[in-house]
Design a protein that fits this description.
Two copies of one chain form a homodimer.
Chain A (H helix, E strand, L loop, with lengths): L10 H11 L3 E2 L9 E2 L1 H20 L3 E2 L5 E3 H4 L3 H7 L4 E6 L2 E9 L4 H11 L8 E10 L14 E11 L2 H22 L4 E4 L11 E8 L4 E12 L3 H4 L2 E3 L5 E3 L1 E8 L1 H10 L16 E5 L9 H14 L4 E3 L6 H10 L4 E5 L1 H6 L2 E5 L4 E4 L4 H25 L2 E3 L12 E6 L3 H11 L2 E6 L22 E8 L1
Parallel strand pairs in A: 3-7, 11-23, 15-16, 15-17, 20-21
Antiparallel strand pairs in A: 1-2, 4-6, 5-6, 7-8, 8-14, 9-10, 9-22, 10-11, 11-14, 12-13, 17-18, 18-19, 21-23, 22-23
Helix pairs in contact in A: 2-6
């Protein structure tokens, strides 16, 4: 059977082949960078979405959906924003045979779709905060090489947009987004670092941007989300203001929080290995696959036993698939390993007669379970798998960072680098050149590793300077 | 407080005002016919989607998602289909400042997006049946007057696409779709009739089309879905074929099943009344609203009692809202009535002290519940409301049809008409002219009312003829 390229030395090749083998997407759709969500990939996405919905709604955010198409006139109201997106939006110019009076943009993100309507919704301080989110597709006319989930032209996207009474409340919402994401990331078993991006890399139109970055081997990082503070940058141009308790009219302060299908890519990148994809059970399309092993002679009771077991596990809320196809067991083992299924249960005649299973989890742990408390043992085996998958990801995360104390050290970095930076843009660009990547910015909260005492700027040597991160964003 | 226009005599005015008052959508988005799903409307849609997903997955259909944009080259492969949609598709012609080599269509429906990929997925009879569905938005450059949910330019859409080994299996899938829809309609409390459309009104490219029609007062009907048999009409042009067990290569036979946000409109149209919208509890954004009534003096215990009650009901799986806004109780009653909430629970000091509630359902039934088995009594009150809402809809449905035995009788019909038709198109058009509407077609299965013995064609007088339905589709 095929083996995958080496993950460490040929990461992108490894990633592309694993995604292909796991059947998470079909890239053969006849528009480059617009891929098909297969049944298996869609199930992973559905679980991801469910976690996002659960955690964001716990913070009081409500679901909405705004139109896909944005009139050019609205799209162009905020100057920095349009500059940031102008080169990469799709334009709808015709309806039937008619040229549209006002061309329409396929949303690249929904600020300019939502904010004219927010201006109608918000009148008084009693209408605040407004916290709404939507899960929709966005579109970017990507000119770089596209990669499934990581860089595509139609993007499955989560976006929260909020309006707050003042800057402090908006700052608080950014913090609340970060803690909501921490809970999501826990379900995804994805250790991450929240980093305030440097000025030159913030979202077009933002006051500041905090990115959620995940190290994915070497100096590579994957930005899987962002939360932005907009201050009044959009509420001014879009006229989103309210009557304050003192009778004055004020602009709202806004925030956004965005996540995307890159999370699917991040899960593959972080948890996958030489055998293919690996899903934490909260996200796995199938949490358990039962493989009935029916020998040429005998084994009549095996399939009914497998099906009854699957039904019981489903009644406990598990997503279970019985692979009763006519492939050989070895082919099935390989298939479900590449597909990242957390727990495989092999049942042959011996297991069916004894009321047991041979359980093999995606990290290779093999054990015989049952007959006493079989279902409980299976649920426990799944929980144990999740714990070990998480521990493995945490260990990889911890070794993904190292301190660099001079610019030359940044060359050929084999981890994301912790460096000291004075905050000047010129120094930032020197650092970016040295690492052949990006200054990711200053982490919010504590550093992912202990860097010791403050040090002078790695570029200019001046103090004060702050610990920042530099790497190679995918 | 505002009253609504008369539903019977001014249906569309009534409908528009009820949708507005119930805050199900915001029409003020700056593109005509593209509306905003408000938090309240989105919640109704979410429940609708959940019912659709549950019932279609029970039949073995799997979720997928295909891209929104379809290359012109693929879009034009099936001749009838393109003729049917050409005048009403949106065209993407530019990416950034670049003219696209091949213009892209925003999907009006996904046959032409999916079928090139189905041709890759299907190789052997073992790949059949292929039953997949997606819930996405579709786009139509509508030139007629747009109406929220009923006729919009961006449409929330459910579409199942299947490939079967032969015509019989495809016919069976159409039947299976009809019974899946019957289960959905049961949750929506929407009595419907499945009607095979006449040839001149079938889906572009279909072998035949069965529509799901709902009478909405007078002779008006609302088509809320369809299931189509395509035979080989698409599989030929798109090359979707398979190796049969006998080694021959055959085209698949295809079916589709489509439902849309019109269901939201249908629920408003069927269940709504002079007081506004009314939702069956399976679909209601909030199933229960608790209104704490706090008098100027006293009532300290009321809000905690209301909140604790709401928490308990939520733990039983109910969607509950506590309206603790500072509006007066009368304004709240009006609000939740227009919004169609099944059950309102008023709690004042007396109720809080006694451990009771005053329950008022959306059909006006008022009763004191508790203190014994309060939660159970509330759940039962909700079930009782659903039964009576359903009975009311069934009674309205039964009186929505009447037999007509001559063309002149069709003028100014006050119901949908049951008429006898020989099957000729010329006679069909005479009937359409007489009723100033459409020949809906011949019902699948039994007629919604008993029409007695077969009669000669209402237009030409010839026999044999079949009972058909004629009405005024919205």
């Amino acid at each position: 059977m095929a083996t995958f390229p080496d993950k460490a030395s040929k990461f992108i090749d490894w990633y592309l082949e694993v995604v292909e083998a796991a059947e998470l997407t079909d890239k053969r759709y006849p528009v480059k960078g617009m891929n098909v969500w297969t049944p298996y990939g869609f199930q992973a996405r559905r679980q991801l979405d469910a976690v996002m919905i659960r955690e964001i709604e716990r913070t009081g955010s409500k679901p909405v959906e705004f139109p896909t198409l944005i009139p050019q006139t609205e799209f162009q109201k905020e100057k920095e924003h349009i500059k940031g997106f102008d080169a990469q939006v799709y334009w709808v110019t015709k309806g039937g045979a008619t040229d549209l009076d006002i061309p329409l943009v396929l949303r690249p993100t929904s600020e300019t779709a939502m904010y004219p309507v927010f201006a109608l919704w918000i009148r008084s301080h009693r209408d605040l905060p407004l916290n709404v989110y939507q899960i929709v597709n966005t579109f970017r006319y990507e000119t770089k090489t596209t990669r499934p989930f990581l860089r595509v032209r139609e993007i499955h996207f989560f976006e929260e947009h909020t309006c707050q009474a003042d800057e402090g409340a908006a700052t608080e919402r950014v913090r609340s987004n970060l803690s909501a994401f921490a809970k999501m990331a826990d379900a995804f078993a994805l250790p991450f670092v929240a980093i305030r991006r440097p000025e030159w890399d913030k979202f077009p139109g933002a006051f500041y941007s905090v990115a959620l970055d995940i190290p994915v081997g070497g100096a590579r990082t994957l930005q899987i989300g962002t939360t932005h503070h907009y201050r009044e940058n959009f509420s001014g141009p879009y006229g989103i203001h309210f009557e304050a308790p003192d009778g004055t009219t004020r602009n709202v302060h806004q925030t956004t929080f965005g996540l995307s299908e890159r999370l699917v890519g991040a899960i593959v990148a972080v948890h996958g290995d030489a055998k293919g994809a690996a899903f934490p059970s909260a996200i796995a399309p199938y949490q358990v696959v039962v493989v009935p092993i029916v020998a040429a002679s005998g084994g009549e009771g095996v399939l009914p036993y497998a099906n009854a077991l699957a039904e019981r596990l489903r009644s406990h809320g598990l997503r279970v698939h019985v692979d009763d196809s006519d492939e050989r067991p070895g082919a099935k083992y390989y298939r479900w390993e590449t597909h990242g299924v957390p727990l495989r249960l092999d049942v042959g005649r011996r297991e069916a007669e004894a009321g047991t299973v041979t359980a093999v989890d995606r990290l290779g742990e093999k054990r015989s379970l049952g007959p006493t408390d079989l279902d409980t043992a299976i649920v426990a085996a799944l929980a144990d798998f999740d714990r070990r998958l998480r521990a493995k990801a945490d260990a990889a995360f911890a070794s993904s960072f190292s301190v660099a104390r001079s610019l030359p050290e940044l060359k050929d970095s084999s981890t994301v680098r912790v460096i000291s930076w004075c905050g000047l843009e010129a120094c930032g660009h020197e650092i970016e050149t040295a690492i052949d990547g990006a200054l990711l910015g200053v982490p919010e909260g504590r550093l992912p590793i202990d860097a010791g005492e403050p040090a002078p700027c790695i570029a200019c040597g001046s103090t004060p300077a702050r610990w920042a991160l530099a790497g190679q964003p995918l």
